[in-house]
Structures are given as structure tokens and as C-alpha cells.
Automatic annotation (TrEMBL):
Its EC number is 1.14.99.56. Transmembrane segments: none annotated. It is found in: Secreted. Residues 22-236 form the Auxiliary Activity family 9 catalytic domain. This is lytic cellulose monooxygenase (C4-dehydrogenating). Its cofactor is Cu(2+). Belongs to the polysaccharide monooxygenase AA9 family. The keyword Cytoplasm does not apply. PANTHER family: ENDO-BETA-1,4-GLUCANASE D (PTHR33353:SF34), PUTATIVE (AFU_ORTHOLOGUE AFUA_1G12560)-RELATED (PTHR33353).
Amino acid sequence: MFSISGLAVATAALLAAGANAHGVATALIHWPDGTFYPGYDPGYQFVHPPPVVIGWSIPDDLNNSYISPSAYDTPDIVCHLGATPAGLAAPVNAGDVLEIVWNQWPESHHGPVLDYLANCNGPCETTDKTKLKFFKIGEAGLLDPAKNYWADDVLRANNLTWSVRLPADIAPGNYVLRHEIIALHSAGVPNGAQNYPFCFNLVVHGNGTATPAGIPATSLYTANGPGIMFNLYNGSTDYVIPGPPLYSSAMTAAQTKLGFVKATASGVSSYEPSAAGAAARAVPTPSVAPAATGAAATAAPVAAADQPAEPVPTTLLTAVLKAEGKE
């Protein structure tokens, strides 16, 4: 069970997060079991030692900053500024829905939401981020040009959360989930786009055999490429989502307000897929069916089995209060 000594730590985290108008992906919720896994929070910069979590550490991100196109060829584009691997991982099944929780996101920062996976080919806790090969498993951009309605609008409407479904056919193993928003409010000029990538470690169980090819994060985008240089204010109705094409077996997750968490957990250590007893640590197998295609904003609600019983906490403080039975 995840715990921090004293709620003052969580409060400090929230205060630090609110120091800048940008946002941070601070947690992950696994469905259908509704387990809340804290990720890295900006407030952990003031905690010694910081909690061990499933989110990659970004202590250099002192003001909720971003990665500029001029840094697309640097390691910072992998999982944010100075990111280092997480010490734990969320145990999941191929085909599961994961809900990423943000602490905030400004209304003016329109842009696409993208999700990638990379197999660590060993423990993710010690992986070399420059050698990770990412394949895209989710994307959404300009959903309604007439209303200038973007993927980030959906995230804000759903309690600052975004859902992604893992491909059902991927082989078991240790993976990094790379979740990202690209803010385009200043992208009409060179080097104006703002990338906000955040990473979480996963231990994926299942019977899949697919090993999708990927590319290094430093090759995902080009500074003047489609979807990076874009004038948000000229009424354009044609937006090309940047990055490589979607993995052929990617599954669209319904973007809905999934509800309350049912439990909290810290995570597990990575494992070798062939190790004896790995299957015993598998999480319960959900019923997996490809979600309806189409714009995320209009996707059908998730199946009843995926529906939790109460609203998702959108801040670390709420999660800690719930975990301690004080809310």
C-alpha cells in the first residue's frame, strides 16, 4: 500500500505543482480493478528520500516546464527533463485500460495527446532510456474543427484524466508507457511547440507474442514537421498528428469519467518474462474487446465491468486521504 509520512508532503506536492500553469502526469489508474498507482510528483523534489513509485523521476523539472523542438534530438524528449527510470512498475495485462491522471492542464494549451510503449528487454528500473524503441498505441488531435475542440479538451472534461488501452497481442514483459501532450498555443513560430512527455513502468502479463518494432524517442518528431509547426489561430481544419503511425493492433480506449479508485498500491519490481512464478503475479484478466473507432470525444462508454463505483481523485492529496480513510 502506498503511503507518505504525513499529509504535509502531499500538500507540498500540490503547492509545487500549482506554481506554474503547465501540467504534470502524476499517477496511473489500472482498470478494471480500479487500482491507483502514484507516479512522480513535483513535490517529491522536497522529500528526502523521495517515495519509490512507478513514474519516472524528473527532479530537473522545477517549474512544470516542457521540451522544445530544439531538444527533440536530446535524451530529454524521452521522458522529460533529466528523467531517470522509476523504481517500481504497475502490474497489468495486455488489453487493459490505463487511466493517466494529470494535476492540471491550462485551457489555452490545445494540442494532441499521444501514447507510446517501449519494451525494456530487461528490468525497466535499470534501462537506458536512449536505447528504448517506442511504438505508438494511441493518439488524438483536433476532434471538432468547427468548435476548435481538441484532445486536451477531453482530458480536462474527464477530471484531468486520459485513458489508453494496451494492445492485446503484445508479448509479456517490462514496458515503459510514454504519455504526452504537445501544446500548440505558440507553435505558429519555429521552436514554439511544447512537449510534455511523462513515463510509467509497466509489467505486462498475457499470452501475446507480438513484439512491435519501435523507434528511439529522439526520432519521433522533427522541429518543422507536420503537427509540430502549426498555427492554432488561423482557423485551420486540417491537423496532422505528429509521430510514427499507430501500431496496427492499437485499441482505442473510450474517454469517459471512469469514476472512483478502489485501492491504492505502490507497484512491483520488474521481472524476467521467463522467470518461474511470473504468472502467479499476474493481475486478474479482464474481458478485452476492441473499442469503437472514431474520435475519442465521441467514443462509446466502457463496458459495465470496467465502470468503477466512485469518481477518480485528480490530485495526490485526494488519493492519500482516501488511502488513509480520511476522506
